[in-house]
Amino acid sequence: ARVRVALVLALGTPADVYLIDEPSAYLDSEQRIVAAKTIKRYILHSKKTAFVVEHDFIMATYLADRVIVYEGIPAREAIATRPQALKSGMNQFLTSLEITFRRDPTNYRPRINKKGSRKDAEQKKAGEYFFMDAED
Questions:
Q1: Is the pTM of this model over 0.70?
Q2: Residue 68 to residues 26, 53, 84, 129: CA-CA distances in angstroms?
């Protein structure tokens, strides 16, 4: 409940730019979806900017229209890319991990493809490590 209250208080405070760190912390999967929709709806409706640091893949990809990818050695050295479109940034990130994602046809959530599967091989061959919605 604390995270939800903190989120409401933060978004209820007038600002030109919102800095939001780990809004999904301590939320269950359903609460994360509600929080992501709330943040996105508010930011788009108010025509404001938000910088969101998020490690939950589903929430991060739902909220983002642009991403910054960090490369390097964790906790030692990192280089940040310029902000880039969600698809190109996620493709860059997932390529470095050698992981491909697809959209689950039942619940529309992202799913990791099994390494070496037909879908994984198809996406890697096409250079499309990250799924995009049909309208994107």
A1: yes
A2: 24, 10, 7, 17
Predicted confidence pLDDT, tens digits, the chain (136 residues):
788 899 999 999 999 999 999 999 899 988 998 899 999 999 999 999 999 999 888 888 889 999 999 999 988 999 999 999 999 999 999 999 999 999 888 887 889 999 999 999 999 999 999 986 544 4
Q: Which two tokens stand for residue 110?
A: 């992202």
User: What is the phi/psi pair of residue 74, to 5°?
Assistant: -50, 135
Q: For residue 19, what are the β-bridge partners?
A: 51
Q: What is the largest CA-CA distance in the chain?
A: 49
User: What H or E segment, with its residue span, contains residue 13?
Assistant: none
What CA–CA distance (Å, rounded) separates 128 from 132? 9
Token pair in block for residue 45: 């409706």
Q: Which two tokens stand for residue 41?
A: 């709806």
